[in-house]
Amino acid sequence: MNTITATAPGYTLGQLVLYMLRLGTFGFGGPVALVGYMHRDLVERRGWISEEDYKEGLALAQMMPGPLAAQLGIYLGYVHYRVLGATVAGIAFVLPSFLMVVALGWAYAHFGGLSWMQAVFYGVGAAVVGIIAMSAYKLTAKSIGKIKLLWAIYLTLAVVTVVTESEIAWLFIAGGLLNWFWRAPPKWLSKGGLNALAVTQVPSISGVLSGLDLPLLGQIGLFFAKAGAFVFGSGLAIVPFLYGGVVTEHHWLDDKQFVDAVAVAMITPGPVVITVGFIGYLVAGFGGACVAALGTFLPCYLFTVLPAPYFKKYGKLPAVKAFVDGITAAAVGAITGSVLVIAKRSLIDMPTVALAIATVLLLWRFKKLQEPVIVVAAALFGLVVHPLIHAHAI
Fold first, then answer.
1. CA angle at residue 358 from 123 to 273, to 5 degrees?
2. pLDDT tens for residues 274-301?
3. Higher pLDDT, 371 or 230
4. What are the boundaries of each domain within the chain?
5. Which residue ranges traverse the bilayer (predicted)?
6. Of 114-128, 158-172, 213-227, 255-269, which has the strongest mean pLDDT?
7. pTM (whole model) above 0.85
8. Distance of CA 210 to the CA centre of its chain
9. Cβ–Cβ under 8 Å, residues 106 and 264
10. Would you say 363 and 369 are in contact if contact means Cβ atoms under 8 Å apart?
11. For a surface tag, which of 17, 89, 356, 373 has the fewest beta carbons within 10 Å of its beta carbon?
């Protein structure tokens, strides 16, 4: 029912670019919160994107590897303005946070670390849990409905995410297939077989690529392209993959530098994956930052733009719709589970628990309260409270 895409868009490409720049500059809370903001602003408030197009974009972003929020932004740019729209929307969304993490990388390299960052992260991490919890609640209410099978898929993924503390890619696909087979049993399965075969080849391909002897920038580009191409899920889901390569395999950073890089990603707006720019800067300066970011985001751009026309063309078929609904239920379940995983790492004492609860209550009570206001207040809270608790502990 892509009614809006059939008519002239109710906005200009310039307006969409300005929106993506603003979201990239002020959009805190990680991928879950960011996809929630896009729904609130572009679907509910402005009516630029139809509910159907948004759901298709979210499903495609979940099906493909790479950062969720960036892929959804690219897809929403594609809806009315095709490849040009996808390209400029993606760049506008990623650029502000990239420039911020490069500036922080420069400060970190020149001034010997960021001692104030632990205090800021202490507060921001707790508030982020509250922000993500509210986004997960809204997505659940919107996406799952009253269909029992979708609830079963949703709850299964939520539990698996909490237990394994990771997003298991094949379970998303399994959720889609289960709903598809149940609601619109297919007469052919050949494409699914090809896709499954491709997925099984990914580890062996990545193993061959990592064995090549390349100059430093080439190694950085190749490693981060693998991160963008082979890691499903988004935001914090990419962190274990990055740790394995950056710290354990290549020894580009030590443990503390890597933890600081993750903290930078959490206290800056835009996609959490933008921490690759910070890591790249520490390893090889501005060139390293650019190569790392390009390597990570180029695969997700291609994985969004190349299948988009076919996804739109066949998106109305009952089989595809059932598959999309199943994947969406799985994705929202994983997102809900990740709230508990992140909470376990960020809510470490009574003040952080209280701050997370206060964030949820404030967002519940004041619907128009902007998340950046909460993040700034939480950062100040951290700067004041963390030294007091730290001093008391000593």
1. 45
2. 889 999 999 999 999 999 999 999 998 9
3. 371
4. 3-393
5. 16-37, 84-107, 119-137, 149-182, 224-246, 258-280, 286-310, 322-342, 348-366, 373-393
6. 213-227
7. no
8. 25
9. no
10. yes
11. 373
